[in-house]
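Recall the central idea of this unit: under ordinary conditions, the amino acid sequence of a chain determines the structure it adopts. In this exercise we apply that idea directly, starting from the sequence alone.
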Amino acid sequence: MASESHVERLLTEGIAAVKAGRSQDALELLSEVVALEPENEKAWLWMSAVLPDQGRIECLKRVVEINPRNELAWKGLELLLADAAPAHEPVPAVSVPEASPESRSPGLEERTAVEADGGARGIGRSCALYTGITALAGITLSVCVVALMLGGTMLIPASPQVGPAAMMPHLPTETTTTVPESAVPPTVTPTATKTPVPTNTLVVPDARIPGFPIINEGAYDEIETRVSELRALQPLRETQRQTFTRYRLEEYLMDVYRRDAYLEEMEIAERMYRVLGLIDEGYELAENQVEIQREYLAGLYDTETEDIYLILDRYTSDLWLEVTFAHEFTHALQDQHFDLDSLQGRARTTDSLLALQALIEGDATLVMIEYAFQHLFQMQFERIDLLKAIQEVEQGEYEEAPGVIRETAWFPYDQGLVFVAALVEQGGWDRLNEAFRHPPQSTEQIMHPDKYLAGEVGRIPEVGDLPGAVGAGWLELRRDTFGELFIRVYLERELSSEEALMAAEGWAGDRVVFLTSEDRGRYLLIVRTSWDTTDEAQEFFSAYATFMQRSGAGRSLVQDTERKQWRTELQVTYLGRQGQEVLLALASDEEALDLALTEFSTF
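Accordingly, the structure predicted from this sequence is:
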């Protein structure tokens, strides 16, 4: 029998290949997994994402043979078989086997009674989603795919000193990503003051913008009631509903971007990205971010005004509007019960801020999925409408954005969904509520929920007084933590998704310091990383050496088992390993690098 570690590695690489869009590689890897472990439910689910409909049906049938309680697979089969049936024939019924009273998850009506008895522990279908939640893209018609397009929060930080590479604003966080499995950069959140946003409220059909969908006020009230019951959180106060067009949204975004030090933070982010080679010299981060959000943002919740904003000319039907509102109203409930502003204010690094966003968006996305399963699959709508909408999302500015922006923009929805589903599977909504009281601290905990559940936290290595070490004229612009996600995304600049995933997986902590000097535009970027084991540190060290080799890194100055140094016309790079730590330093010149390394004598 194949070793568990070998099968797990194949499975991990296969999933990474699916995420990277390399269907053939994914199929080969996942086929090897099921050949070694025919009962591997997760492998069959992921394989369904890279096969045509008939193969997808066979994979999902295999899943329900292994686990008859996997309702995601049952729903996928029902939808696929409905599409395959000739128009004049009745659609074959696909039903989940009857559950015993002990194992049956409570439905929406039952959940209300459970709550009355002292707290809802069940989640209905969503609990059964965990083992298959990451294979959502494999279920073509699933309204879960709407998560690519909808919802978001606007988080206003308590302090402008939030994360470094804060490259993407957390203001209205767009949910219209282009790659279903892709993962958003570390983000900078603007420090904001209240800015009145004059908009119209959704009222009656004759007040609608011609050609745009509308839902009447009574329907919105019903959606709020359903979401409150589903999430087992009762509204504490009324939430106002506002509307935007994309033109008005652009004005709103620019107002936010002009507040306080936000543009300054974006400028620092740009400089760091360029040092890391993640964006081109001419790429304007703030300008492009406004354009991307204007084109793809479908809705947002503003924690300051406590209003929900819906961008009406993003919708092709009332269906999209209803699902978006369910997502956004979940954010309103989160804010009323857990104070999102306060949570965000305590997230002091890029990594912890992104982890918090994953908790927030994962929760809203899971509720949205459950809402769709319970209330929208009964509606009549065409598969072509969904596919057309998704195809529209995959075009335009966002598709052309740098990879790091695409990757990190999807992370809170993709991995956040998996993380939240793991918590709910363990202890229902009560366990998820507890996570809001004690939020995850790193993207590592989001990507590996078992580490969060075990209380495992990272080890943040120390970086001393670098401005003092390098001398007068240097300014420290950022001190932060990148985290496992960002390191993986950075490595993907030159390495394959599988290589980057494996190299970053042993992350235990890091500290990043970025300094610049007015003298000839000099800079220093120091990244001191800590790893779970010496072997994991060596794996990252070797992977980064390969990264540099593939980048055409210029002349090699030092090459030994624990120290390497490269020089190009524009940059000097140093890599050193000591035990479970690896030091990475990027500098504009050798003099600056040598001064910085005096603080790291063990490397």
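Residues 4-99 form a domain with the Serine Threonine Protein Phosphatase 5, Tetratricopeptide repeat fold (CATH 1.25.40.10).
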